[in-house]
Amino acid sequence: MSLYTIMYEIENFEFEVDEETGEVVNFDKLDELEVERDTKIENIGLYIKNLDAESKMIREEEKSLAERRRVKENKMESLKKYLMDCLDGQKFETSKLKISYRKSQRVECPDYTVVPLEYIKLKDPEVDKVAVKEALKKGISVNGCQLIENTSIVIK
Fold first, then answer.
1. What is the mean pLDDT of residues 42-49?
2. Cα–Cα distance between 61 and 53 in angstroms, integer?
């Protein structure tokens, strides 16, 4: 779908693109096309406008899909909470469905400024939660941090 009439030679030119950077690497072959300079420039410009329009359409579709995904994920989490409340920790199983629970732990450090320096990552002022979790599991108290138990529902 083209917004503009672009010369067949330009529109169907085999652009060789660097996979990592997305840059065109075969401009020398483009220069070899036997087309008047002004016509070539105009058609390449029109081709760029087409690519820009297509990328904007893709970006809008990405936003739309991300919003749809977010709504579905929120609905799923809400329904999981509802099931957890209904089942109150009981397992459930039928021929089509199995509901169980998984316990997990996470480290919570609301104020990293009170955490001992040995548990702060040097690169950025951030708590090394893996080290804190290991220490808390061993029974070592870490100022400003606590281990929180979570229960999540597993539906198979």
1. 86
2. 12
Residue 27 confidence (pLDDT) above 80: no
| Residue among 93, 109, 105, 89 at smallest CA distance from 148 | 105
Res. 34: pLDDT tops 70 = no
Tell me the DSSP string of the chain: --SS---HHHHT----B-TTT--B--HHHHHTS-S-HHHHHHHHHHHHHHHHHHHHHHHHHHHHHHHHHHHHHHHHHHHHHHHHHHHTT--EE-SS-EEEEEEEEEEE-S-GGGS-GGGEETTTTEE-HHHHHHHHHTT---TT-EEEEEEEEEE-
Supply the pLDDT for residue 111: 80
Q: What's the pTM value of the predicted model, to 2 decimals?
A: 0.57
